[in-house]
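Hypothesis: this fold can be encoded by more than one sequence.
Test: take the structure tokens below, design a sequence, compare later.
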């Protein structure tokens, strides 16, 4: 009788040692962070770029304001480093994350620009863009981004690329 109890005890101990939790008992994996964000915190960014329509470099900044996960408002402004007349562009954009967990995003908005189109004029048009901001780990507060942008104004579509860093506020 004693050997039967020790055999049963050994069998139970072995089953407990090799038992794994059922899928419903496991802790779910942490969700991957949103593109360019550790949550719904606003971000301020500095950027540099090049506009092929003007043939000029630019410096500027942007504010990323997440509204809901995967959707953000991104107002931005750039000054073009081109003489003699000052030239600039202000964008009021909305961006949507593309894909489930990736950092690819796209969007559109209103572009207001003062640039040389024969003469220097202030014009308004639609701007469209696509960008990439890698998903960031929760402990990071500074993260890079890159965007390609087209401004549709006066039957033209100048193309620009900007890159920069966002800082979580």
């Amino acid at each position: 009788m004693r050997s039967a109890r020790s055999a049963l005890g050994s069998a139970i101990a072995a089953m407990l040692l090799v038992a794994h939790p059922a899928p419903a008992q496991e802790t779910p994996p942490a969700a991957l962070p949103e593109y360019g964000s550790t949550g719904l915190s606003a971000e301020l960014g500095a950027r540099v770029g090049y506009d092929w329509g003007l043939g000029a470099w630019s410096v500027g900044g942007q504010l990323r304001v997440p509204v809901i996960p995967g959707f953000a408002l991104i107002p931005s402004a750039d000054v073009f480093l081109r003489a003699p007349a000052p030239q600039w562009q202000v964008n009021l954009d909305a961006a949507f994350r593309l894909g489930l967990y990736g950092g690819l995003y796209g969007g559109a908005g209103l572009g207001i620009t003062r640039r040389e189109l024969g003469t220097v004029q202030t014009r308004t048009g639609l701007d469209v863009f696509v960008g990439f901001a890698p998903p960031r780990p929760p402990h990071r507060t500074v993260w890079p981004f890159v965007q390609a942008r087209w401004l549709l104004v006066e039957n033209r579509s100048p193309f620009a690329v900007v890159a920069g860093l966002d800082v979580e506020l």
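Residues 43-168 form a domain with the Porin fold (CATH 2.40.160.20). The first helix runs from residue 2 to 18.
Hypothesis status: open.
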